[in-house]
Amino acid sequence: MTVTVLLSLGPSDGTTKYVTQLVEGKAPGTRYLYFSWYAALFGRYDVFHVHWPEHLLRARNPFTQVCRRALFRLLLLRLRWTRTAVVRTEHNRAPHERGDTEESALTARLDACTTLHICLNPTAVRRRGISVTIPHGHYRDRYEAPSGAQAERGRLLSFGYIRPYKGIDRLIDAFSQAADPDLRLRLVGKPIDVGLRHAVERACAKDPRISARLEFVPDDALAQEVCSAELVVLPIHEMHNSGTVLLALSLCRPVLVPRSPANELLCAEVGLGWMHLYDGDLSPQVLMDGLSAARAGIGLPEPRFEGRDWLSIGQRHYEAYVRALVEVGRR
To answer: CA-CA distance, 157 to 262, in Å (whole number)?
Structure first.
């Protein structure tokens, strides 16, 4: 049985490798289409698979945003009239940047016609209806450690799209208070706005131990940045799911993250010595303790990943699509 699936995402533009991995790991019988408004409204597909629905509703230009929301309303009508199965992957509990009332109302309407929800870990809040758990895949097949790559002593790294919820300001504050002159902090990623860019640039100018590369970086350069770090620090409050954590672990670099139910499960999965969890606020002492723990774990076996290869994930997605189609047929 062939299932044609329209993704709510276009081809990877460098901001995420999730869609690339998903498409490349597809199971036999799955046919993926990338999103366009023409395909969404007039194309032929069996399942609409939604990722980050707010991306369909937001635009920097106000006129473009109005147009997108009008098209989204037409899409909701089309999905109902054609009884199309809707599958939604719950990447996070709520949008990282809060939307307005109209956006919330439109996403609620989408939730009301969603057939099946895919959760990325067992700690996810289950929405009304059918839910299945399919974990986020690892990145061992996507990123390779550069030949001869070695961690630089005292080098801390935080990488990924720089957004307010990621706590870069807390990391900079805690690092700046650390007295060790041999520590280094490297920040890599494109800021979401000019204000964040200026904040990082000011921190670099104020403390010569801090440096940054504020842009999207190609895979080989990112792998070099990760492998040069002694510890990856990601101070994201209420961390529910993070591809960045999985990327660091895929390159065998230990990570320091806040304690959360999802992080505790992943910590148990990958094995001792790879994830270092802290409680409360990030502080200079937390950074130093995390660095000491990372050094104590040198020589450990590689992190274990259970069910996170993308071929297994592709097969489980195919089964989820078929289940959603069966459920629509029952209604």
So the answer is: 22
